[in-house]
Design goal:
It is a single chain. Helices cover 25% and strands 31% of the residues. It is of the alpha+beta class. The protein has one domain. The protein has a six-stranded mixed sheet with strand order 3-2-1-6-5-4. The longest helix is centred in the first third of the chain and has 21 residues. The protein is globular, with a radius of gyration of 14 Å. The N and C termini lie far apart (29 Å).
Amino acid sequence: MPGIVPGGEAADRRTLETLVHDLRRYAAEGGPTPAELAAAPLISEPLLVADPVAIRLAGVVTGHPRVGPGPAMTSQIYAVDPCSRWVRSYSRLWRVDESLFSGMAPP
């Protein structure tokens, strides 16, 4: 779960405002644009991970501006593409290399 670094309140507020803006736009437009997806970091071998307060995605990350390449875990997930091509976490959009739901029975 994201925390606010002392003195980082303005940055945290901008992150939350961007998240809200993106979620509203995704709902209205059916998801991120192709350009946004192309620019998003990739997470391969994805695994949904639940902790007491959030669902996150763990896997092998490439293209992240500060992490990797290598194993990593996202911040809290707020949106999942019904086709499992992307997720929107607290801090950013992620491309997903493989289906999150492979091997699961359809609803």
